[in-house]
């Protein structure tokens, strides 16, 4: 955009000030050069000049007096700065104060490589300033340059000038800094002969607002003659950025019935222009409201702060009567303090009218009816209510309570989250014979509390009448399960017990018949009339149908209803053990080498299907009538194992050794089992049992397996 008239005047004024400064150079009170730089020497030498200072009060320097910030230095009458004695460290900076009755000034000597010495100038010089320090006289005169942003061609164009009244012949101006020889490079340049400063392209204040440049004069060899002197370039803002709403989406909430003037939300925009100018001074207004009922001006926005507030009465802000509880506002932000020439930006504000619980739920009718069969559970009736509040809030969601008629806790009521209905359920089966009718009193409330001026009325309670329907219920066994304990192997036909079942339908006077439902081993029979259970086979505790000595059977009790109803009863028979199983040995095959030095053959174990005391300790013996003496030996290891060994080496062959094992039952049971012993040829770590016609197991392997079996018992 084109710069405004005030900005053009500022630029012209800047150029006039520069020219005025260039002409007023005859005499300026103070030091001719105020800033010096020297490197820290190894030592400052006594009475050796460090540099020369030039001071003028433009009135002859009468009564000129110098003071140095360090007591180890002085300034002679000719302006030379010298050390009073040999010294090394004096700090990073020396200050020289010059004063006459007409003027005073300060010069600074920066010692590159020196160390800081703390202390204020007032403490160092012990003086109070009585007059302002005049600007030092410099031959290079610069003034800040003001450039409007977004200038158009042509480029380059002159924007300012640097003046040097004492510039030696042949010297040149040099300009450095960011925007010249540092990125962004090439924006500014200086005419090395005239000092005219020009810009090569248009500027953007929002990218860089100021440029800090340095200007100096140099000789033909590039050595600095004077300076560098700071040159500030200020980019003048133009209104080239629209206001932007950056924080959307903008969603506000206000409670229905809120007082007039209630703040809903704040909307603020951002303008990238200079905040110190009207270019970024924003004003807000509402451009459009949707819907525009019941009033086209439901809200107001503070033009300066951006606060959106309600402007209608609380009665109009009633969510239940509004066409739509959601309003959309088009908010406009305009810069230039809202003037017509200002740029604009818009955003949408969504305002939700939130519900408050100002309507109590009401049952759609005072009485509800329900029927349920006895013995059934589940939902029996849905209670309906009406509530004008917002269905998405706790002000609408209903909570039901049974307040009377449920002493046995047979009923529960829960809210259907989709319909808000109360689902009344039977959770404990009802008995027609005990009570055929039930009456419940139920109340409904909201999850959220009502507002103070609203209360629950008679419509918030309802009565439910429940009729229980009689059904033919199956007979019930007493007790269930039924338990009896018997010895195994009792005689067939033995009576175990008589079952008892009753019909809950006491008013129907029905008869009951019994039958076997599940009898896995086929051991039982039941009298269909009187329920007597007897055995039809031998009961065996070791049967695979018996688990942990308990046999399970199921019986049916069937009434004479139409249709008949059935009940199921469980019979648990605990079988006591008798000694009806002979023990057995393992293993039944063993190997031994014909030249073995260890004549141990095998460790035998014994087992018995019966229970203690009809099992171990076992007695192991060799059945001698068929076995020659002085060849085999059996020795007890513990209650369940014994060791078989040879008394001498045998020839390679198969041998059958009858082993007799007896349990501890009364009377005891004995079992004789042949142990087949293979005597094999064992040479060069090879076992050969082929001639013996037996599997290739070494004696050592058999013994190890036997010992492992022993350890696991």
Automatic annotation (TrEMBL):
Region span, Disordered: 156-178
Ranges of biased composition (kind: Basic and acidic residues): 158-172
Keywords: Calcium, Cell adhesion, Cell membrane, Cleavage on pair of basic residues, Cytoplasm, Glycoprotein, GPI-anchor, Lipoprotein, Membrane, Metal-binding, Repeat, Signal
Keyword Membrane among record annotations: yes
A biological process from GO: adherens junction organization
Subcellular compartments: Cell membrane; Cytoplasm
Bilayer topology term: Lipid-anchor; GPI-anchor
Complex and partners: By contrast to classical cadherins, homodimerization in trans is not mediated by cadherin EC1 domain strand-swapping, but instead through a homophilic adhesive interface which joins two elongated EC1-EC2 domains through a region near their Ca2+-binding sites to form a tetrahedral, X-like shape.
Protein name listed in UniProt: Cadherin-13
Organism the protein comes from: Delphinapterus leucas
